[in-house]
Amino acid sequence: PELSEEPPAEMVKMTKSKTFQAYLPNCHRTYSCIHCRAHLANHDELISKAMLFWVFLQSFQGSQGRAYLFNSVVNVGCGPAEERVLLTGLHAVADIYCENCKTTLGWKYEHAFESSQKYKEGKFIIELAHMIKDNGWE
Of 25, 27, 74, 96, whose CB has the highest number of CB atoms within 10 Å? Predict the structure, then answer.
């Protein structure tokens, strides 16, 4: 019989640990997923706070609540882009979700069709309902 470097299947133990792709430094105020505590963003990446209401073009399902706009985020996955009419006009956006627990957190602005909204391109919206503040908040 030939020797194999791989152990028999019954001897392979598969485990899935809860490790995040990125950990933000403890010395900075951060935002984490309220559902699983994965780090999402450093407070320094916050652009502005806003009251947001979005309407999905196809389903007309709405969601209302406060949200923050960030330059960059971590531990977040991105779905496919689609055009949606938001309060500020037509945008191409992609839903974003926590890579750890898969909860939809908000969206990424892929393209703004109005020139006054171009500053949002490449930025991320995360609803406050899905975030918790960590590290050094008073």
Answer: 96
